[in-house]
Amino acid sequence: MPVVSTPATLKPSTGPIDNAEVLRIRNDFPILDQKVNGNPLVYLDSGATSQNPQCVLEAEQEYYEQRNAAVHRGAHTLAVEATDAYELAREIVASFIGARFNELVWTSNATEAINLITYAFSNASVGRGGEEAERFVLRPGDEIVVTEMEHHANLIPWQELAFRTGATFRYIPVNDDGSLQLEHANTVIGPQTKIVAFTHASNVLGSINPVETLVQMAREVGAYVVLDACQSVPHLPVDVKALDVDFAAFSGHKMLAPTGIGALYGKAELLNAMPPFLTGGSMITTVTMEHAAYLPSPTRFEAGTQRISQAVALAAAVNYLKETGMERIHAWEQHLGQRLVEGLGQIDGIRVLGPRAGEERIGLASFDVDGVHAHDVGQFLDDKGIAVRVGHHCAQPLHRRLGLVATTRASTYLYNTTDDVDAFLEAVAQVRPFFGVK
Fold it and tell me: Which EC numbers characterise this protein's activity in its record (predicted)?
């Protein structure tokens, strides 16, 4: 049987996470037990890509060693076992976000998931999909709304969709502190709005957006809601049904899984009405030389050879997170996030973006060092074995709005200790003196 287990077999841990438990958790992550530039690795770049526990590595290896075959295409034993493992993985991951198995489409990443939506809407707008797909047709005068804090993956696809269909592209601006100007959102979201797309948690600011408020605004005008959940699904409990979003996208490599696997959630009635994005084998019912008919969701969106081993590994990652407990992980990361913000706030010449100390945020902090470019900050920290992200974090418009070109970002996960944060803060305090900035 597959390495991944069903959710019912899991017994989540209880009580708050502390440093002692994190040290035990770290033993499951082989890559963390190394030195970088002669120093113990302090990995604070999980907002970009998380590390993999041993059970996830073993799940993917076990798939290739024991049941590697094409899924949904053969009747031999290996093909049946591969198909079972693939679909069990879908059930596990769908359950993790409160969805049904037929509401989860495998993609390569969240970027592909969002592009899947936009191209499906494009196909509907040129007459593909029949009467069922007419609800997705965009015309000149229709409006697509995003926010000024979006990652490029939840910005550029909507810009391109507007270009292809003639729809108008609009956005909800942010305040000087990066928070959404909710008081002006009702002037942006209006009767012509067809899509409202926004991030659940900002990959730059660390802020958690008011999903309920934005969903209500969208519902009042009959717009579809698309949630970028890349920074929320890995770090806090997410129930897409409770949030009442129409679509949500997230990536496996940010939640302990390998690269090359992500997922799109969509309400079943919407996915089944959407025309496909990619076409080819495995997603059809009948094909003639003149016509093709497509399978229901999610299969209609999974053309070609599927991401089988990656899906199995993502399910193993989800099981690891469930066993640890998402509420516990969220609480621990909030603690680390507050430690980051409070510590950075005590260092001269540091500007921290996003919520202030004491306000809710996920476990990351982006900051600017006065007089030192972010790339130099990152190199200085790397010399000490501390891995962080530098640049605009695929959010150029947000940085431009805040008057910055680039920032340094430290992002935590369940395998980070308070000692990691303290080592990082100690190193940041040395940056300006090292570069001779006063």
Answer: 2.8.1.7
Euclidean distance between CA atoms 137 and 130, whole angstroms: 11
Q: How far apart are CA 370 and CA 375, in angstroms?
A: 13
Q: Structure tokens of 401?
A: 């709005």
Looking at residue 438, its pLDDT comes to 82
pTM over 0.70: yes
Those residues whose C-beta lies under 8 Å from the C-beta of residue 351, and which sit 6 or more positions away, are: 367, 368, 370
Two tokens, residue 344: 């950075």
What Å distances lie between residue 113 and 24, 166, 249, CA to CA?
Answer: 34, 22, 6
Cβ contact 420:412 at 8 Å: yes
- What's the whole-number mean pLDDT along residues 378-386? 98
- End-to-end Cα spacing for the chain: 62
Positive or negative, the CA dihedral 361, 209, 254, 393 is negative
Q: pLDDT at position 12, please?
A: 55
Specify whether domain 77-321 bears CATH 3.40.640.10. Answer: yes
Residue-level pLDDT at 5: 45
Burial-class residue 394 by CB neighbours within 10 Å (0-12, 13-18, 19+). middle
E strands, 229-348, in order: 247-251, 262-266, 284-287, 292-294
In whole angstroms, give the CA distance from residue 129 to residue 122: 11
CA-based angle 87:91:94, to the nearest 5? 130
Residue ranges covered by each domain of the chain? 77-321
Active-site amino acid positions: 394
Instruction: List pLDDT tens digits, range 236-246.
Output: 999 999 999 99
Q: Are 224 and 196 in contact (CB under 8 A)?
A: yes
The amino acid occupying position 400 is R
Q: Are 207 and 361 in contact (CB under 8 A)?
A: yes
What per-residue confidence (pLDDT) applies to 14? 76
Nearest CA-CA partner of 146 in 110, 207, 212, 197: 197
Q: Is the C-alpha dihedral spanning 277, 281, 287, 290 positive or negative?
A: positive
